[in-house]
Amino acid sequence: MPTRPPSPEQQKEITVLCVRTAVLLMQFSAESVLVESVSRRLGLALGVDTVEVALTANGITISTLCGAHAETAVRRNVDRGINMRTVTDVQRIMLDAEEGRLDIAGVTARLDNLTQERYNRWIVAVMIGLSCACFARLAGADLPACGITFAASFVAMTVRHQLAHLHFNPLVNFFIAAFVATSIAAQGLIHELTDKPRVAMAASVLLLVPGFPLINSVADMVKGYVNTGIARGAMAALLCAASCGGILLAMTVWNAWAWIQ
Questions:
Q1: What is the pLDDT of residues 156-215, one digit of tens each?
Q2: Cβ neighbours of residue 17 under 8 Å, at least 6 residues apart?
Q3: Tens-place pLDDT, residues 18-45
Q4: Rounded Cα gap, residues 222 and 66, in angstroms
Q5: How much is the pTM?
Q6: Position 259 confidence tier, pLDDT thresholds 50, 70, 90
Q7: DSSP characters for 137-191?
């Protein structure tokens, strides 16, 4: 902990670091209670008396108080997907500051050097294909149906990655990915490649279930962050609706209404 109170200039830097930390956590899908806890603990570790945090779905406001002097910072939040490595790295920076190993300059340098590394997209696509095929197998699919599921989900995930790389709206991304996955899986029904075409069509779109946003939504509302929880839940519902739209369009185009016949 600092041995003397920070100056007004240092307090301003601490406030900026707190809001920067909160934005990083929020952007990469940390739950709201973690965002507030880490940013508050970082400010206290760097020497301010109190840190007040206000979260919304697309913005963060943080105020710090040191003696009679207050500083406030506001930043806009833009969703950047899920990256738990960045979330973990930010928490480690806060813990190092609490243990006295980092001062204001050290925290700034560590935040500047953060890298948002991700798994190789081809490895992710293969693993997604295998996981969807395994779900199909658990649901009683035969080997041809598992193969169709793997191919459909692999291609859909590749398309999803490419559309995300091109900065398409997530709703458009999910709609197109659902259309691609269902179109490929429908070939098992059209050409009678398997005895379990319904299982293949269902399992091939499991990659589009927005599990993380739904879990965060419920966790936020249970822990008192109703506004952010509702916003995250609404976005998850829209992603589900976009996926359903893509599935329905593909089933209409290929006349493959296997789920309701």
A1: 999 999 999 898 999 999 999 999 999 999 999 888 888 888 999 999 999 999 988 899
A2: 42, 43, 46, 104, 107, 108, 111
A3: 999 999 999 998 999 999 999 999 999 9
A4: 32
A5: 0.87
A6: low
A7: HHTT--HHHHHHHHHHHHHHHHHHHHHHHTT--HHHHHHHHHHHHHHHHHHHHHT
Distance between CA 28 and CA 84 in Å, rounded? 7
Intra-chain end-to-end CA distance of the chain, in Å: 67
In angstroms, rounded to a whole number, what is the distance separating the alpha carbons of residues 154 and 157? 5
Q: Report the interhelical angle of 226-254 vs 170-190 (nearest 10°).
A: 40
Question: Nearest to residue 42, comparing CAs of 85, 86, 2?
Answer: 2
CA-nearest of 3, 36, 16, 8 to 105 is 16
Residue 200, H or E segment: helix 197-203
Q: Look up residue 169 and give its two tokens.
A: 């709206």
Q: Residue 122: its pLDDT value, please?
A: 94
Furthest C-alpha separation in the chain? 76
Q: CA separation (Å) from 202 to 56, 149, 163, 184?
A: 35, 9, 22, 12
Q: How many CA atoms are closer than 13 Å to the CA of 119, on its beta-carbon side?
A: 12
Distance CA 44, CA 100 (A): 12
- Tell me the domain boundaries of the chain: 8-112, 121-254
Contact 8, 199 (CB under 8 A): no
Distance CA 16, CA 14 (A): 5
